[in-house]
Amino acid sequence: MNILIINSGSSSIKYQLIKMPSKKVICVGAIERIGSTDAISNYKTDANKVEKIYEIASHKAGLERITSLLLDAEIGVIDSTEDIDAIGHRVVHGGAYYTETTLIDEEVKSKIKKLSTLAPLHNPANLLGIVMAEEVFTTATQVVVFDTAYHGTVPVKAKKYALPNELYENDGIQAYGFHGTSHKYVSEIANEYLHKENTKLISIHLGNGCSITAIKDGKSMDHSMGFTPSNGLIMGTRSGDIDHSIIYYMVNTLGYSLDDVNELLNKKSGMLGLTGFNDLRDIEEEASNGNANCILALEMNAYRIRKYIGAYTATMNGLDAIIFTAGIGENSSLMRQLVCKDMDYFNFQLDDSKNDLRSKNVREVNTTDSKVKILVIPTNEELEIAKQVYELLH
Ligand code: ADP
């Protein structure tokens, strides 16, 4: 079964064609900077690798470019659009409506649209990807995997805010949780690695967006992001947890507009606001040259993660393993070191020499006598989506 995975963002479309059940990746690619005259198209198969700059005005034009690559006589991988059996779309917000992988119909699309108010940066672009794919791949079964779905198991006591009940009951104000596909994927790999299903895990996804999930017996029990993907850990440009009164103070006393505050909290805060840099590699380099803001920002970032580890260990009453994943979690030995420092009370201890080794494989970076395992597990959201689409259609 040929499953095309589409992750349509505000200015990009990332895609992978995966054969299931063999999990063979046939091709992988992305179009970035859609809407500009110098959009970049990457496309890679086992035999070919192409990167070109085009003018790509719209998502439709982007998907047409992708289709022509897939069908190309020399470097293509399919003969006809009908060779794509199913398309798995990543959609960020499924609200309280969807906690399962779902076949797309008109109602699903209208709910995704309705939920755009909760994820304005993501849902409209995700929906555009669906509508375009339906036009181009007319015979493929279209399926959606929601980032929020995995957190459907979070108990009410953890997901409900202490606000008047009607806001929860009538208006859907609750913590939804995000990065579910990634947390599910790495926690399943962790359970396989540990040869156990009944585990207490903390999954730490550190990419441009960052989140942490308490997972018991394979189920999400609590999660750091909330009503929107802005709560919790310090991220590339997002503040994570703040006292909400700061917003009123900025508007009423400092003269910001609400839109300005929203922009500031989502796009100008986090590591960028603290250091002037968004990419952790730059921050680590500056810190190693003595930049005090960068040193402090790294410490703040790790401190926040440690607080959540403490909280989730308490709420699960135990811990078998913590998992580091995504761009920073997989690659930054420094961030892992800062998070794991002096955690012997929690029974985990990093082995510095294992931590410094680089690998694309699942690896254990704790000392041999550390009771709690420290695992580094490369995430693969596309493969997880392909697995879920395949399971739904079989
Ligand atoms: P996204 O959330 O967009 O999928 P990624 O998971 O790709 O993001 O993570 C992006 C982050 O990973 C960036 O902050 C980048 O600096 C960081 N990163 C990637 N490689 C390294 C590395 N070798 N060392 C430190 N940070 C890294």
The CATH fourth-level homologous superfamily of the largest domain? ATPase, nucleotide binding domain
**Could you give a short account of the major beta sheet?**
8 strands, mixed
CATH architecture of the largest domain: 2-Layer Sandwich
Order of helices and strands: EEEEEHEEHHEHHHEEEHHHHHEHHHEEH
Strand % is 15-25%
Per DSSP, the total helix count is: 15
**Over all CA atoms, what is the radius of gyration?**
21 Å
**Poorly predicted sequence stretches spanning 5 or more consecutive residues:** none
Say how many strands there are.
Answer: 14
How far is it from the N-terminal to the C-terminal residue, by CA? 11 Å
Describe the global form.
globular
Provide the residue-averaged pLDDT. Answer: 95
Keyphrases for this structure?
394 residues; alpha/beta; Nucleotidyltransferase, domain 5; 2 domains; six-stranded mixed beta sheet; 15 helices; globular; binds adenosine-5'-diphosphate
What's the quick description here?
Its EC number is 2.7.2.1. It catalyses: acetate + ATP = acetyl phosphate + ADP. The chain is α/β, with parallel strands linked by helices and 394 residues long.
